[in-house]
């Protein structure tokens, strides 16, 4: 994808023309997002297909709309539907919505996803606060010529997951566990040997999304907060059971009410 700055500006203009007030917080919700939408006081829904250059996800559980709405009286953007590397998008393409947020001057990005639990202390359905990541996807959205208008050539990642925001979460939920998310390309789930490797290198969770968005958001200077719903147990190998998309969605949906409650409380203090 070329000329991202100009394209994001054009898409941002299209979006801002349709709303009176521009939120400074962006949410991108993965699996379970349709349930979260029920809790939102909708101001405007814009189909991704209407927005210039916006990609659209083919994942069945994603709705493909940019929603402007209020949660607990706080105005937010919601990316209802996320694009994935395994669908064939480049990481530059799939992070375009984050560039549009950047052009709209969004300051805080809150993401959620579903993941496999590599940490044996996690239980299925547990909401984990992501504190760091390991990028095992064979791409980085910042690869190629750097556009200095978008960010630094070598963005620092020592605090890719905002400490200030994580402290706020822990004030709200002292017992929440923090973990390291490994981004793996998918779409096949990992083999027992791969889960074991990812556990060994320091991963607590593994999933097929989020890392590219977090890299772009950091490049863009945003504060990032990520929650992951651990949907299936992946370690130790004897505890692995076959996993289907339906099960992942069902477990994620069960936890999403608790997650939206938490997000809604947090939004007041961001
Ligand atoms: N691996 C990768 N992505 C996932 C998993 C998993 O086990 N569970 C939910 N998303």
Task: Sum up the structure in keywords.
9 strands, about 270 residues, 5-stranded mixed barrel, binds hypoxanthine, Rossmann fold, 8 helices, alpha/beta, single chain
Largest sheet: 5 strands, mixed, barrel
Number of helices: 8
- What is the count of structural domains? 1
Quick one: CATH superfamily? Answer: Nucleoside phosphorylase domain
Q: Which compounds are bound in this model?
A: hypoxanthine
Q: In total, how many beta strands? A: 9
Biggest sheet strand order reads 5-8-7-6-9
**Helix and strand composition category:** alpha/beta
Whole-number radius of gyration?
Answer: 17 Å
Secondary-structure element string? HEHEEEHHEEHEHEHEH
Mean pLDDT: 94
Distance between the termini: 32 Å
Q: Quote the beta fraction.
A: 15-25%
Q: How would you characterize this protein structure?
A:
The protein is an alpha/beta fold and 270 residues long. It has a single domain (4-268), classed as Rossmann fold (3-Layer(aba) Sandwich). It contains 8 helices and 9 strands. It has helices spanning 4-16, 33-37, 91-94, 96-103, 163-172, 192-200, 211-219, 245-267; strands at residues 25-29, 41-47, 65-71, 74-80, 108-117, 126-135, 178-183, 205-207, 223-233. A 5-stranded mixed β-barrel has the order 5-8-7-6-9, surrounded by 4 helices. Strand 3 (65-71) and strand 4 form a beta hairpin. Helix 1 packs across helix 4. Bound molecules: hypoxanthine (HPA). Residues 114-116, 184, 189-190, 206-208, 231-232, 234, 243, 248 line the site of hypoxanthine.
């Amino acid at each position: 994808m070329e000329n991202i700055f100009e394209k994001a500006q054009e898409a941002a203009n299209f979006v801002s023309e349709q709303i009176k007030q521009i939120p400074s917080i962006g949410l991108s919700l993965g699996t379970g997002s349709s349930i979260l939408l029920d809790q939102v006081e909708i101001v405007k829904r814009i189909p991704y297909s209407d927005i210039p250059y916006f990609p659209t996800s083919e994942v069945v559980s994603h709705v493909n709309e940019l929603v402007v709405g209020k949660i607990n009286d706080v105005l937010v953007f919601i990316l209802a539907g996320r694009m994935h590397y395994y669908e064939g998008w480049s990481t530059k393409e799939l992070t375009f919505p984050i560039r549009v947020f950047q052009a709209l001057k969004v300051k805080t990005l809150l993401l959620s996803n579903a993941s496999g639990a590599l940490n044996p202390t996690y239980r299925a359905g547990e909401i984990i606060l992501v504190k760091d990541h390991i990028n095992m996807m064979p791409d980085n959205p910042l690869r190629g010529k750097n556009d200095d208008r978008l960010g630094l050539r070598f963005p620092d990642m020592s605090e890719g997951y905002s400490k200030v925001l994580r402290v706020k979460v822990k004030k709200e939920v002292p017992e929440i566990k923090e973990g390291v998310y490994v981004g793996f390309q998918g779409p096949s789930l990992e083999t027992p040997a791969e889960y074991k490797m990812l556990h060994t290198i320091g991963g607590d969770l593994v999933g097929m999304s989020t890392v590219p968005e977090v890299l772009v958001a950091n490049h863009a200077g945003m504060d990032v907060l990520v929650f992951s719903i651990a949907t299936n147990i992946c370690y130790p190998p004897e505890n692995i059971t076959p996993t289907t998309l339906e099960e992942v969605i069902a477990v994620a949906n069960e936890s999403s009410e608790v997650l939206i409650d938490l997000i809604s409380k947090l939004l007041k203090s961001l």
